[in-house]
């Protein structure tokens, strides 16, 4: 299918599709007239890419998992490990953000509304 058709079927812009292709996440054959020709599987693949991005995976992480996806049904254990690593990463980021929030809230509470010292100075 040509890029316009793939764009319509996936809701992605042509520029996004070209970007994915440059990053190696999408492959197209070139027809005799030079147009990109995408396989039917590209629609499903791009759905996977979008879902993975919504789950917090970077394009680099998605690209690294390309060999994993080739395993098909045998990918279960490796996929579970990948998802567990991402979950641990998100948990660590949440913990760090909670600590940051606590520090910011403390500085806010210690700052009078009028004419006080800067709350961004190092804590004593």
TrEMBL record:
What SMART domains does this protein map onto?
A: HTH_MERR
Assigned keywords, A-Z: DNA-binding, Transcription, Transcription regulation
Please report the stretch or stretches of sequence annotated as the HTH merR-type domain. Answer: 1-68
**Protein name per UniProt:** MerR family transcriptional regulator
PROSITE patterns found in the cross-reference section: HTH_MERR_1 (PS00552), HTH_MERR_2 (PS50937)
Highest taxon above the source species = Bacteria
Q: Per its UniProt record, what InterPro entries does this chain match?
A: DNA-bd_dom_put_sf, MerR-type_HTH_dom, MerR_fam
Q: Per its UniProt record, what Pfam families does this chain match?
A: MerR_1 (PF13411)
**The UniProt record lists the keyword Transcription regulation:** yes
């Amino acid at each position: 299918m040509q890029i316009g058709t793939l764009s319509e079927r996936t809701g992605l812009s042509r520029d996004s599709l070209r970007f994915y292709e440059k990053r190696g996440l999408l492959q197209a054959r070139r027809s005799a007239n030079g147009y990109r020709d995408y396989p039917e599987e590209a629609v499903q693949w791009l759905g996977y890419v979008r879902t993975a991005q919504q789950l917090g995976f970077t394009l680099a992480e998605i690209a690294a998992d390309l060999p994993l996806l080739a395993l098909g049904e045998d990918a279960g254990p490796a996929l579970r490990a990948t998802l567990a690593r991402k979950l641990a990463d998100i948990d660590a980021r949440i913990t760090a953000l909670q600590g940051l929030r606590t520090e910011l809230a403390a500085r806010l509470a210690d700052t009078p509304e009028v004419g006080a010292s800067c709350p961004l100075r190092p804590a004593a």
